[in-house]
Amino acid sequence: MTASPSRAAEILARPTTINGLTVPNRIVMAPMTRMFSPGGIPGADVASYYSRRAAAGVGLIVTEGTYVGHDSAGNSGRVPRFHGEEQLAGWAKVAEDVHAAGGTIVPQLWHIGMVREEGQNPFPEAPAVGPSGLRIGATEATGTAMTQRDLDDVIGAFAEAAAAAERIGMDGVEIHGAHGYLVDQFLWAGTNRRTDAYGGDAVARTKFAAEIVAAVRETVSADFPVIFRYSQWKQEAYDARLAETPEELEAILTPLAAAGVDAFHASTRRYWLPEFDGADLNLAGWTKKLTGKPTITVGSVGLDGDFLNAFVGEGSPLKGLDDLLDRLERDEFDMVAVGRALLQDPEWAAKVLAGRLDELKPYDAAALQSLS
Ligand SMILES: Cc1cc2nc3c(=O)[nH]c(=O)nc-3n(C[C@H](O)[C@H](O)[C@H](O)COP(=O)(O)O)c2cc1C
């Protein structure tokens, strides 16, 4: 079946909900680190970057990863922080502008763990910390294995950031549990060698993430959305997997859902790939099937001209995006996050929602260089 522009527009334009939040359509801006916030303060250019995409019809913006208030959380002075008076004032203005443009927005709360190297900004004295002090792919510890006190501090930092998000007018939060950063370092056996209650089987490795979710849930209002992003793949280990079977995935997702996750954001690099043998479902599809929660899919939507061809081309050999619309229509997942295509073209959502697919621009990595 070949999707027509009007079918694409119609399916993507349907509103949906995450806990107390109504999202006006199915298009989500994927979180993308841009490093345009000197001092960790998102300025007027960051506010206009996001509000421009909201004005063009993105239903939900997930901001770039923004550091929680723990000195070891980051490795750049140009990544925005989600703590501190000036930083939060910057974010309040971002939220205000996005709302004025008709959009909704959640900050992605981030701790990079062992991806940090010693001496890096924004706090050069801070150590690199992780479940076992191991970098991805390493066998010898080069950082600090977190103590119970460290764990409590970081859990507290996520909860404080979530409370701040609600206070300054954000529409929810996304916890960054993906791509080999701190929370994922706990989830993945390759970096979690702990022998205490936070290490061992999949359920034990999920304990830290679940405690973060529970602490966030307890701090914010009952209807304030808490989204959890996770992935199989890691930076520097694209083939890594948390779960080889649906049963293993269920062991991870069930405690997270029980702790209070309202929606999952299942990060894959190509949305059309089946996650496990024997079924067509991608990672988001499996996540929804296993948890019953609203789910966001992501990965190469709109890249390489596939989007254009698959929507407008009669007899197109590309079935990926037809497949995406079919799956959305079947409620296998609920929302579609778009990353690079939205960097390339701030008007991407407006064009898709109006069926102006012939106007979409192919992605060019030069789009990474500026914040337009
Ligand atoms: C420049 C850039 C920065 C990114 N930064 C983040 C980030 O801060 N947090 C995150 O979870 N994912 C991040 N990602 C991954 C994206 O959210 C998304 O999952 C990925 O780009 C695949 O979607 P796409 O093919 O539509 O671009 C980043 C991707 C890019 C291209």
Compact description:
By secondary structure, the protein is α/β, with parallel strands linked by helices.
List keywords for this structure.
12 strands, TIM Barrel, binds flavin mononucleotide, 13 helices, alpha/beta, globular, 372 residues, eight-stranded parallel barrel, two-stranded antiparallel ribbon
Your description of this structure?
The chain has 372 residues and is an alpha/beta fold. It has a single domain (5-369), classed as TIM Barrel, CATH 3.20.20. 35% of the residues lie in helices and 15% in strands. It is built from 13 helices and 12 strands. The chain has helices at residues 5-12, 44-55, 85-100, 148-167, 182-187, 202-205, 207-219, 246-259, 283-291, 306-312, 320-329, 340-344, 348-353; strands at 16-18, 21-23, 27-29, 60-67, 104-110, 129-130, 144-145, 173-179, 226-234, 263-267, 295-298, 335-338. It has an 8-stranded parallel beta barrel with strand order 3-4-5-8-9-10-11-12, surrounded by 5 helices. The protein has a two-stranded antiparallel sheet with strand order 1-2. The two termini are 36 Å apart. 52% of the residues are buried. It binds flavin mononucleotide (FMN). Flavin mononucleotide (FMN) is lined by residues 30-33, 64-65, 108, 176, 178-179, 229, 267, 298-301, 303, 338-341, 368. The site of flavin mononucleotide has 22 residues, from β4, β8 and α12.
Walk me through the topology.
Elements: H1 5-12, E1 16-18, E2 21-23, E3 27-29, H2 44-55, E4 60-67, H3 85-100, E5 104-110, E6 129-130, E7 144-145, H4 148-167, E8 173-179, H5 182-187, H6 202-205, H7 207-219, E9 226-234, H8 246-259, E10 263-267, H9 283-291, E11 295-298, H10 306-312, H11 320-329, E12 335-338, H12 340-344, H13 348-353
Parallel strand pairs: 3-4, 3-12, 4-5, 5-8, 6-7, 8-9, 9-10, 10-11, 11-12
Antiparallel strand pairs: 1-2
Helix pairs in contact: 2-3, 4-7, 7-8, 8-9
Bound molecules: flavin mononucleotide.
